[in-house]
Design a protein that fits this description.
Blueprint: H1 12-34, H2 51-57, H3 60-93, H4 99-106, H5 108-111, H6 114-128, H7 134-159, H8 163-170, H9 175-204, H10 207-212, H11 219-226, H12 236-248
Helix pairs in contact: 1-12, 3-7, 3-9, 3-11, 7-9, 8-9
Amino acid sequence: MKKERRKFKLSPLGIYAVLAYSFLYLPLAVVIVFSFSPTKSIVGFSGFTTRWYIKLFNDEALIAALIHSLQVSLTAVSIAVVVGTSGAFFLVRANFPGKQLFRSLSQLPLILPGIILGIALLILFMNLGFELSMFSILMGHVCFTTPVIMFQVASRLQRLPRSFEYAAKDLGATPVKIFWYVTLPMIRTAIIGGALLAFTMSFDEIIITYFLTGTWTTLRHDAFWSVPAGVRYFDRGANFCYGFNSFNG
């Protein structure tokens, strides 16, 4: 018997998705292609070269800013995963007066414009006598990444039946084992999804970082303030790096 070949059909929704993604990512593809052009002109591709990337990887200030961004983002997300997951359990499982108020206040870092949050944190750190450094930037990033993970995990916890946990408890499992072997596997994807979203937001953050940075800068901050000056970031390799940063955002 001959197997029938399935004809590939693209639904109207699929066509819309292709057009939407093309609109979003084709400009980035153009930046990547022209990053290999030997000239600084974006009108016509006249050859192939990697000299812009050689200049990029020899730019110590840019590489240092990239490392700073990764340090801040990874550390902020690690803290946010622990605090946010704990907050999600507290929000869903605990009953206390003012629970709705607590929920609303927890959303403020996501609702407030970055400039307001940045100024508020700057005033706080100045009043406490903290110097602007990696720590101030890190705390600023933790402020808005924690609610992202907390509400992601809280949404998953609200949909989970507690019958599995009760069954494990009846079988003699300790609270730690119940969490590790029963609850955590069921909320793991929510934690990972929230962490990835939080990392993207942290890596792409510029406004809060601007108010909380001293001499310790991140890639997004360095790129943003170098573009008006002209010189470095109009090189092709740096444009690709900045485009990659925008892609993550």
